[in-house]
Amino acid sequence: MKQLVEGFAQQLRDAMDIGEKATVAFSSPLYNNVVIAGMGGSGIGGDIVQAYVADKLEVPVIVSKGYTLPAFVGLGTLFIASSFSGNTEETISGVRAAMNSDASIGFVTSGGELLRIAQEEGMPHLIIPGKSKQPRACLGYSLVEMLYLLHYAGLLDDTFKTELRQSISLLEEQAGIIKVQASALANNFHNKLPVLYVSNALEPVAVRFQQQLNENAKQLCHVNVFPEMNHNEIVGWQHPESIYEQLSVLLIRTAYDHPRVRLRMDLSKKIFEDKVQDVVEIEAQGATYLEQALYLIHLFDWVSVYLAELNNVDPNTIDNIDYLKGELSKQ
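== Bifunctional phosphoglucose/phosphomannose isomerase ==
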């Protein structure tokens, strides 16, 4: 896993190369909406894409994480199915429903049933490398190829390519600093329950961090967002007092935080510090949303790997998921 995290910037570069060399054509020139289907490591890429294009696309984008699709999916829908293995049962179910609704469908996968469907039906698809067998370590591929599908569908202009190249340069320039920051955060989280707070603009990045801590470090984590948490969770910072010494709070700040959100973070931090000794902050680096998101993703991936070492666990294994898949396959 450490080697895969180390190669994240190169993975982004390779993903761009796949997107640039691809020949992808969609039959419909107009779309009323976009639906991205994916689970786990493939699905979180859809969440990040949705957040990134929120101020760029003139049609709504939603992410579907389940077996069924919204009733509006139909002729005016661009449906993107993202599955590393190509065999994710929820995503396959969504594809079959999308096919029945006459939506335009594009695929991002390394193989499996989804690639078979795409090739058999002559549908647009981008093939990503599958040799790592670690979907969560291949976010760069799934995220970038989804952006390319939106581009080839005529919904997204070329700007994302420049921002991706800038992001790659930033990650390479900051590689040493990122590892130092990650090691410090891992030590903060060791034997603690990480509580992550971020603005709603970058919620998918914090959720990705939570997922990486779950899978790589085999550790629970809690995430909530500003300003929503100020309308409910902030009141919960009273009981049970016995857990305060087990918490480690991280405030994730970015240049895309609304000024009122920044103020809310400042005020809420005082409440946290009255309860918890370990309250830290981190500021995303980069000039664009994509740079800041990818910077944080890479930083947090390193945290999860370092924390796995501190927890003395193998970041590559996912025993509970393997158990669930095995039992589901029997029924």
